[in-house]
């Protein structure tokens, strides 16, 4: 997978290279990450990328020309079939279904806005889709891009140490994850559930599945409305 980001602050994306799963995936080439700065494509002396909004009002708007040229440059490197998205609080809400949707695009270009956002004509003509990471407003699209890139990386083959990790995480199969414990067995009176020390793998799987169902019911009951238990999960509940 090759992801490009159009951003005024390319150095922010370096946070993905700091450590952990994202850094390892980038080092090993499981994901290629490239950035383009619209400031490098301006035609004015001061390298300005923004101007005042028509109709008046506060803030500045990112102009079409530097962003359009940056997008065209990025597409010439990534490929003509690149899917172009604009990070925006007005876009489709990013969730686990969104992860699976975006994984279908081997070449993805993310446009990170700043100021009041980008000129609407760019959205109409150059952008395939808008995506939001939640109903709140950030100062820029870079953090949103990084959130999405991190979530995608977890699903790239060989990105996780234990490949099954992603499939037992919350939201996979429509459930929240079960609780996790590690040493010590007892901590100021708080004990690890005895079943987890039993060595009985079938019983442990059943307990974990019930815990996941219970947590989902308490915290995200809407997930249960769409849940279809697999034959294996139904078997676990009847044992
Ligand atoms: N005036 C815009 C609005 O109200 O829709 C908000 C502009 S915001 C200050 C600047 C940039 O941050 C946006 O262009 C977008 O790229 C990014 N951004 C802000 N909130 C976001 C969110 N929830 N999800 C994705 N990107 C976001």
From TrEMBL:
Record's GO cellular component terms: cytosol
A GO molecular function held by the record: tRNA (guanine(37)-N1)-methyltransferase activity
Name this protein carries in UniProt: tRNA (guanine-N(1)-)-methyltransferase
Gene (name only): trmD
Localization annotation: Cytoplasm
Reaction(s) this enzyme catalyzes, per UniProt: guanosine(37) in tRNA + S-adenosyl-L-methionine = N(1)-methylguanosine(37) in tRNA + S-adenosyl-L-homocysteine + H(+)
Cited SUPFAM superfamilies: alpha/beta knot
Residues binding S-adenosyl-L-methionine, per UniProt: 113, 133-138
Subunit text: Homodimer.
Residue ranges of domain tRNA methyltransferase TRMD/TRM10-type in the record: 1-226
Record-linked InterPro entries: Alpha/beta_knot_MTases, tRNA_m1G_MeTrfase_C_sf, tRNA_m1G_MeTrfase_TrmD, tRNA_m1G_MTases_N, tRNA_MeTrfase_TRMD/TRM10
Keywords tagged on the record: Cytoplasm, Methyltransferase, S-adenosyl-L-methionine, Transferase, tRNA processing
Pfam families for this protein: tRNA_m1G_MT
Function in brief: Specifically methylates guanosine-37 in various tRNAs.
Stated family: Belongs to the RNA methyltransferase TrmD family.
Gene Ontology terms: biological process: tRNA N1-guanine methylation
Enzyme Commission code(s) on record: 2.1.1.228
């Amino acid at each position: 997978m090759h992801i490009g980001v159009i951003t005024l602050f390319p150095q922010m994306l370096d946070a993905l290279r700091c450590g952990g799963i994202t850094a390892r995936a980038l080092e090993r080439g499981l994901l290629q990450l490239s950035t383009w700065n619209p400031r490098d494509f301006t035609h004015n002396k001061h390298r300005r990328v923004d101007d005042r909004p028509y109709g008046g009002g506060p803030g500045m708007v990112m102009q079409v020309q530097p962003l359009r040229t940056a997008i065209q440059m990025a597409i010439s490197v990534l490929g003509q079939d690149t899917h172009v998205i604009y990070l925006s609080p007005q876009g489709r809400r990013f969730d686990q279904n969104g992860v699976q949707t975006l994984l279908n695009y081997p070449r993805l270009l993310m446009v990170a806005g700043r100021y009041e956002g980008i000129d609407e004509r760019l959205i109409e003509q150059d952008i395939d889709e808008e995506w939001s990471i939640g109903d709140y407003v950030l100062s820029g699209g870079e953090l949103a891009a990084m959130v999405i890139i991190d979530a995608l990386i977890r699903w790239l083959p060989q990105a996780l140490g234990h490949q099954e990790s992603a499939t037992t995480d919350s939201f996979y199969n429509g459930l929240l994850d079960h609780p996790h414990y590690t040493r010590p067995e007892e901590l100021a009176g708080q004990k690890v559930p005895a079943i987890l020390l039993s060595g009985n793998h079938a019983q442990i799987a059943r307990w974990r599945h019930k815990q996941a169902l219970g947590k989902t019911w308490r915290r995200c009951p809407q997930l249960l409305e769409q849940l279809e238990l697999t034959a294996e999960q139904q078997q676990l509940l009847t044992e």
